[in-house]
Amino acid sequence: MSDIAIELRGIDKSFGLVHANKDINLTVRKGTIHGIIGENGAGKSTLMSILYGFYQADSGDILVGGNKVTIKDPNAAISSGIGMVHQHFMLVENFTVLENVMLGAEDSQILNTSISKARVELKRLEKEYALEVNPDALIEELPVGLQQRVEILKALYRKADILILDEPTGVLTPPEADHLFRILGQLKDQGKTIIFITHKLREIMAITDEVSVMRRGEMVATRKTKDTSVEELAELMVGRRVLLRVDKGEANPGAVKLAVENLTVRDSRGVTMVDNVSFNLRAGEIVGIAGVAGNGQSELLEAISGIRRAVSGTVLLNGKPIDVTGHADPGDLRNRGLAHVPEDRHHVGLVLKFDEAENGILGYHNDKRYLNGVFLDTKAIQVDAEEKIKKYDIRPPNPRLKTANFSGGNQQKIVLAREMERGPDVLIIGQPTRGVDVGAIEFIHKRIIEMRDQGKAVLLVSVELDEIRALSDRIIVMFAGRVVGERDPDATEGELGLLMAGVEGRKEAAE
Amino acid sequence: MSNPYAKLPAWAEYGLIPLVNLIVAFLVAGLVVLLVGENPLKAAYHMINGAFGRGEYIGFTLYYATTFIFTGLSVAVAFHAGLFNIGGEGQAYIGGIGVALACLWLDKTMPWFVVFPLAIVGSAAFGALWAFLPGWLQAKRGSHVVITTIMFNFIASSLMVYLLTRVLKPLGSMAPQTRTFEAGGQLPKLDWLLSIFGLDVGNAPFNVSFLLALLAAFGVWVLIWRTKLGYEMRTMGFTPSAARYAGMKEARITVIVMMISGGLAGLMALNPIMGEQFRMQLDFVQGAGFVGIAVALMGRSHPAGIIPAAILFGMLYQGGAEIAFEMPSISRDMIVIIQGLVILFAGALENMFRPAIGRGFATFGRRFPVAAQRGA
Ligand SMILES: Nc1ncnc2c1ncn2[C@@H]1O[C@H](COP(=O)(O)OP(=O)(O)OP(=O)(O)O)[C@@H](O)[C@H]1O
Ligand SMILES: [Mg+2]
After folding, report:
1. Residue A412 near residue A359 (C-beta atoms within 8 A)
2. How far apart are CA B284 and CA B293, in angstroms?
3. A284 CB less than 6 Å from ligand 1?
């Protein structure tokens, strides 16, 4: 059976009480792109980590090219021809591309000969697969899309025939993602095998040959991509019909809750990231900020929520000013009815080493209901966590579990539950569904619209244009730190795309 | 999945790994002893016997351990907030002023149990004061505490030389030290505690500050895991950007934590000054501030780990002195090497055996279900 690249037989893996992989069978054909989808916590990353030697299966066999192998660590995976591109890149930030690619694969004791050999090889790979990067650029200076390319080069340099990509598009802008797909197409044409994990069913339909669906630790189905549909896949994943379109009624905008005027924000290097931005947000409406990542949306949210100091401008919350250019205090803003779901849940929204219950009070830890004087009321905190776990269906339902051990989507639900359950007047949300499965997206979208219908003001930033269009009542487009236009949600994707690329905007501004 | 190491059950994480590290440290130390032509088994015998062989030896071991519990806790508290306080040495030294003042003032008129609380407050206050400045400098000026606390160790040292040679020294005395305290400035020994186990404390200065150290350890546990301040400290220590997002006042917390840390280091001064020498001498801290770093490291910054780690180092001090005495070819410096090896394996090379042990668990893993583990 030489056309089979990888076969998994009866893979089983538990973490304590969590049965992450149950008797998994999977066959990946050589020279194909094989998609793997599944709800958050379904066990996709665990399965790939077993294949790549990070974890050991409790039982089951791995066959590579028809031969049984034991993969006890990533080195063993590499010698079996398996490479992995991690969701959180494992690159040395202050090394160059070349140094990163050869790191750990130096083939001579003398560094210089190693380097020159590696340079030649890297050039060859770049040419063969059209993966241009400057070998002497420092990683920290490269955009995410290029860093990912370096991860791919790293795997190819180690002669990987089988490439695993775990949610590679989560961090990419749409053009970067398109570019990645072209690269994957080329790799496939060269005979490489690719395993591709994603939550975006559209991507599955666009580039895979076959797709396998996991649910609650089990492999529930494998389909030929051309014989299936987005609807069927969503249903297989969640086990019920999923509403892929958002159902929402007319907005009933009320009083202005948040007024931003001439706000300007610079980053730590002094580059202007938000340039004289003004807009209003009313009660009972959702305003979406569209834009390619890195055009100032993140800094805008940070300034409004008091995390980053603005250079100039004013922001009024419920008619009263926020000291955005001075010492705005995020804790004080929470008391005044502003809640913030930050874009970066790993470094801002959560403390990964805390347990679930501890993260449930982050930012609200001054609230009397969690305290007995200066002491934490652990009982109250626990009860509160259990309620949210139930209401938001956070899995596994264990408030004592370390947050790092929850899957990405469930981590996001922990943050959302914390920020939404207060009934804030103004909710600002960055990337609400990054890395979140379709079932949870449906749930999160429903909750956001419910908030709006209760008369809350919602400011939404997302790089997913579909999401912006589905949820927003008004869309503001940012480009290079400026607001380049405002549109209705029924504006076409092409029209918004042009604005986001700064094409239309320049014309409009000139007029 | 960025963590290449499998997660281990708590008993392996906190019991097995430190034990393996320790055994290796002693094996390597044994090799060193072998190299100088001595019998490692004999050295080990003298070490163990010297630390635990008699009631008196145990008293000495626990006396040293008391000191190390205070300095270990001091380092651990700061560490939970992401601060590396290397100034325990200076803070303990300055803390001595508080003890000395209380004793010099009241030792002739008041019993020890009146002087002791005052000395506790005094030592903690002076230690806290000495840590306040570096904390404040970091909070307001961004000067890193690692640098400033080291510098403050030197300042403390010079200041104490001045005080002990000019101000606190009794007139006409040649020695750079205060006068010897009367009964009110002398802490009672814990001879009754040892006699419960049928041991005789002998000359060992094992005194009530040991109980204070245990109390402090419990207090630190409550502080870190049961108070709002502890919650804020841990947030800051793990993820500073999340602390900012949560509206925590980093500057304020930095200053408070440094003062608590300095106060704990200051308490250490009670043990030698009121418990052993009954006067304040030059250099009474004797490196205990630095040993505290190793103790905190080995005890994983958890009070339940710090107490056994402090006892271990107490044993190395006491038993080490015994080896040097019994086996002349092993000098004091050799003992320092052995202590260094323990620090190296228990602290710095913490992760050396983890992958292998992790693999062991993966192989036999099914039999040891990983209990969902608390943040503590
Ligand atoms: N190291 C670990 N310790 C304990 N539980 C774990 C560990 N790693 C994963 N889990 C649990 O195993 C289950 C599967 O997790 P996994 O990360 O494989 O899900 P996933 O399908 O990749 O989800 P997502 O789409 O959100 O990334 C989850 O319930 C998770 O909480
Ligand atoms: Mg995953």
Report:
1. no
2. 18
3. no
Do A274 and A165 share a structural domain? Answer: no
Q: Hey, what are A139's tokens?
A: 């990683």
For A215, phi then psi, to 5°, come to: -145, 125
**A369 and A263, same structural domain?**
yes
Q: Which of A362, A402, A414 to mutate to test the interface with B (most CBs of B within 10 A)?
A: A362
Domain extent for B179: 66-314
CATH of the domain at B267: 1.10.3470
B221 touches chain A (CB under 8 A): no
Assess B362–A contact: CB distance below 8 Å, yes or no: yes
Q: Are residues A187 and A263 in the same domain?
A: no
Tell whether pTM > 0.90.
no
Q: Which of A39, A407, A410 to mutate to test the pocket of ligand 1 (most atoms within 8 A of CB)?
A: A407
Last residue of a domain, one of A238, A264, A286: A238
- For residue A53, the domain's CATH number is 3.40.50.300
A291 & A179 share domain: no
d(CA B121, CA B269): 12
pLDDT tens, chain A, 511 aa long: 468 999 999 999 998 888 999 999 999 999 999 999 998 889 999 999 999 998 999 999 999 999 999 998 888 999 999 999 877 677 888 888 998 888 877 666 666 677 888 888 888 888 887 788 888 888 887 877 788 889 889 888 888 999 999 988 877 777 788 889 999 999 999 899 999 999 889 899 999 999 999 999 999 999 999 999 999 999 999 888 877 777 888 888 999 999 999 999 998 888 899 999 999 999 999 999 998 878 899 899 999 999 999 999 999 999 999 999 998 899 999 999 999 999 988 889 999 999 999 999 999 999 999 999 999 999 999 999 999 999 998 988 999 999 998 888 899 999 999 999 988 999 999 999 888 888 889 889 999 999 999 999 999 999 888 899 999 999 999 999 999 999 998 888 888 888 888 875 555 554 4
Residues A226 and A372 in one domain: no
Count how many domains chain B has. Answer: 1
Q: Evaluate whether residue A149 is within a structural domain.
A: yes
Q: CA-to-CA distance for A73 and B119, rounded, in angstroms?
A: 57
Chain B residues within 8 A of A332 when measuring between CB atoms: 247
Q: Which domain does A339 fall in, by range?
A: 256-510
Question: Would B40 be classed as within a structural domain?
Answer: no
Looking at the complex, report in whole angstroms how far the Cα of residue B128 sits from the nearest Cα belonging to chain A: 20
A246 falls within a domain: no
* DSSP notation for B22-77: HHHHHHHHHHHHHHTT--HHHHHHHHHHHHHSSHHHHHHHHHHHHHHHHHHHHHHH
Residue B375 in domain: no
* A7 Cα–ligand 2 center, Å: 20
**What 3-state class would DSSP assign to B290?**
helix
Task: Report residue B43 CA to chain centroid gap.
Answer: 25
Across the A/B interface, how many CB contacts are shorter than 8 Å?
A: 118
